[in-house]
Amino acid sequence: MQFDAERRIASGLRTAWIALATFLGVIALSVALVVAFEHAIRIADDLSRKDEQQLVARFVARSLETQASSELGLLSWDEAIRHIQSPLWRPGGGPTSEMLWLDREFGHYAWATYNADRSFLVQSDGTLIRAWANGRPDGDGAYRQLNGAIGQLLARSMRPGQVLGVPVATVRLGVQNAGARPGAPAESWKVAWPIDRAGSLAPRWAGGLVRTDHGVSLITVGSVVPDHDPAMLSRAPVWFVTTQPLDPRIILRMRRELLLPDLGLTMPDDPAASAKVSAHTTTNMIPLTGINGAALGWIRWSGKSPGPSILRSASPMLWTWIVLFPCVLIGGTIVLRANWHTTRALVANAAQARHNALHDAMTGLPNRVHYMQRLHAELAASASGQARGDVFVSYIDLDAFKLVNDTLGHHAGDELVRQVALRLIETLPSGDFIARFGGDEFVVLRRGEGGRSLASQIGMQIMRTMDEPFAIAGNAISVTCSCGISWGPAQSEDPGELLRRADIALYRAKQRGRARYRCFTRDMDAGMKLRLELETELRRAIARNELSVAYQPIVSFAGEDSKGTITGVEALLRWNHPERGAIRPDMFVPVAEQGGLMIALGNWMLAHVFNECAGWPPCDISVNLSPIQLMARNFVTTIADLVTATGVDPHRIVLEITEGVLLDRSDHVLQVLGQLAEMGFRIALDDFGSGYSSLSYLRQFQFERIKIDRSFISNIETDADAQAILCAIASLGRSLRMKVVAEGVETEAQGAVVRAAGCGMIQGFLYWRPMSAAAVLPLLDPARPMETLPVRALRSA
Ligand code: C2E
Ligand code: CA
Ligand code: CA
Question: Is 603 touching ligand 1 by the criterion CB < 6 Å?
Answer without folding.
Answer: no
